[in-house]
Amino acid sequence: MIKITDKTKCCGCTACASKCPKEAIKMVEDEEGFKYPIIDLEKCINCGLCEKVCPYNNEYKNKKIFNESIAYGGWNKDEEIRKISTSGGIFTSIAKNIINNNGVVCGAIYDKDLNVIHDIIDNVEDLKKVNGSKYVQSDMKENFKKVKWHLDNNRLVLFSGTPCQVAGLSSFLGKEYENLYLCDIVCHGVPSPKAYNKYKSELEELDSKKLKSINFRDKCTGWQEYSFSARFNDNSNYIEKAAENSYMKAFIGDIDLRKSCSTCKFAKLPRYVDFTLGDFWGVDNYYPELNKENKGTSLILVHTEKGEKLLQKDDNIFIQQCNLQKAIIGNPSILQHNPPNKNRDKFFAELEKVHFDDLVKKYIKKPSMIRKILRKIKERF
């Protein structure tokens, strides 16, 4: 049976809990707000499936990937979609095509309380829920099982998530499905839901207002110099440049990320997915024509022929092939993980006692760290 003794080797993907034939595994939140598998020994039959399906023990490898990934820069031709998207809005167009062909999309959305969860979307109108980066680890819930049900019933499925979540789904499924498209993201790491909820509640306390929406990557100040914004139930807004926002400082400063993020085994090439999406940081250095208006440029890495065909038949996007190595330079998270912030344990030890803004000021305060944050926000170096 699976037993987590080293938290750097559990990404919380839920593959083990989803695979258990006796539903003996529950994902339980720890003191930092991250979920880990806990086994009910009375239900467990020692079948060993949970250990076998863990992507840290048995990463499923798609044999149909290209020898070298193909890199593109591009965007959605619909200016409104591009405007509300984190980068260029490529994902929305791909997802729309899947749904229009009687398919479903599984991705991260906000629930009614602005918690970040994965859910199944089966109509175009709801795709706006999947738009935008959500800098907190999503709750996968029962979606691995739901995805399998749709696949087994011959529906097209597009699954989007962090590299570890996609690896977890692939390992859970255990075989390749022609009707499944896998999309992972260029991932810097996943912040704690507990830290996110604390920041969110303190934001509401600021003016005694209930939050209505959150946008971690508001383009009101441009794509590269983006802002954090929130809207309250009275339609008033809170906007702060990312470089000055305490939540974004904590995220970029690696202080509230899951322990497994600092040893991520999925930050690499090749990737056993159909395509990878991210921001094309550093595009100005090599392809300035792809960022003339600072509206957002997506980086697309295509890894399979299936992914390439899906991309090429989409008439609603503009793409330009780019040099893979040049594309990676501005996106080091494709190939490497960041070491944990040296103050990480202190941060979590005081999370419930100290105001979030004060906690960030306390542990991310050195000029060198601030410069690092500003540099990462602009170029992701």
- Quick one: biggest sheet? 8 strands, mixed
Report, as a whole number of angstroms, the end-to-end distance. Answer: 40 Å
| Strands ordered across the widest β-sheet | 5-4-6-7-11-12-3-13
Low-confidence stretches: 367-374, 377-381
* Total number of distinct structural domains: 3
Instruction: Provide the structure class.
Output: alpha+beta
H/I helix tally: 14
**Based on CA inertia axes, which overall geometry fits?**
globular
Mean of all residue-level pLDDT scores: 93
Q: What value does the Rg take, in angstroms?
A: 20 Å
- Helix content bin: 25-40%
What brief labels describe this structure?
381 residues, alpha+beta, Alpha-Beta Plaits, three-stranded antiparallel sheet, 14 helices, 22% strand, globular
Quick summary:
With 381 residues, the chain is an alpha+beta fold.
Could you characterize the architecture of this molecule?
- The protein is of the alpha+beta class.
- It has three domains: 47 residues, Alpha-Beta Plaits (2-Layer Sandwich); 204 residues, no CATH class; 103 residues, no CATH class.
- It contains 14 helices and 13 strands.
- A hairpin with a 4-residue loop joins strand 9 and strand 10.
- Helix 8 crosses helix 13.
- The longest helix is centred in the middle third of the chain and has 15 residues.
- The radius of gyration is 20 Å and the shape is globular.
- It starts with 14 loop residues before the first helix and ends with a helix.
